[in-house]
Amino acid sequence: MPNTLVIQSHRSPLPYPWLAGCLESVRRWCVFNKFDYRFLDDELFTCLDAELLEKSAEQRVIAADLARLKVLQTALRDGIETVVWLDADFLICDPDNFVLPETPYAVGREVWVQHDRQGRLKVYKKVHNAFLMFRHGNTFLDFYLETAERLLRQHQGGMPPQFIGPKLLTALHNVCQLPVMESAGMLSPLVIRDLLQGGGEALRMFHAKSAAPLAGANLCASSCDKGQVDSAEMGQLIEALTAKPHLLL
Fold first, then answer.
1. Which residue among 108, 144, 156, 232 is the one 20 to 30 A from 176 at the CA level?
2. Does residue 236 sit in helix, strand or coil?
3. Complete DSSP assignment for 76-138
4. What pLDDT, in 10s, does the model give residues 165-211?
């Protein structure tokens, strides 16, 4: 069995051409490190029962957040030593420095810069599940999966898209300080625009609140879905970060 397995998933065909660049960056990183790689499309959801699929029908991202945990758990139970999840919109721009920590598990870091209700720039520091790593024998994955599934089954009414993903992870992190891979980050639309424009206050605040340089980042395809960044700009960003990863230093 492989020592390390990296898993990604997305529906086919890809909705944006720039996603192919993100996926390719992860595959190259896997080849460089001799990691095994697995890509799943909608088969990701076959591990969820009818009740869970129905409850998450209006928020497919919630189903994906739960299904990834089940897939990762299954891989560990099948004998793989280390499993890694990376969202399809995650770009590894500095593969030499995207190094898995020695901790039993780890989550990604979110430093999100946006305007508050008064129009002022504000930084929200959280954790995210666009990057997840679990090693054989860790005690967190089973707990996280059981908690997420229980909350989803018990919940009535509408749910925010991050219900059992970043929201639950951040709540747990605030209580017990989860191990964080600080170099696995996330870029908000304002930070992306500053990167494309060569600088700005949002990027400055992002750097000030980041604990370490990023070697990879979730580019948030939802920013394209909402029209906050267009597909061409995402393509330009990937080209720029791949050529000059120091832009995230």
1. 156
2. helix
3. HHTT-SEEEEE-TTEEES-GGG----SSSEEEEEEEEEEE-TTS-EEEEEEEEEEEEEEETT-
4. 999 999 999 999 999 999 999 999 999 999 999 999 999 999 999 99
Burial 109-140 (b: 16+ CB within 10 A, else e): bbbbbeeeeeeeeeeeebbbbbbbbbbeebeb
Q: Which residue has the tokens 């076959």?
A: 46
pTM of the entire structure? 0.96
Alpha carbon distance 70, 100 (integer Å): 21
- CA quadruple 16, 21, 24, 29: dihedral positive or negative? negative
Q: 65, 108 in Cβ contact below 8 A? A: no
> The tokens of 53 are what?
């699929």
Contact by Cβ (8 Å): 209, 111: yes
- State the residue for tokens 């951040």: 170
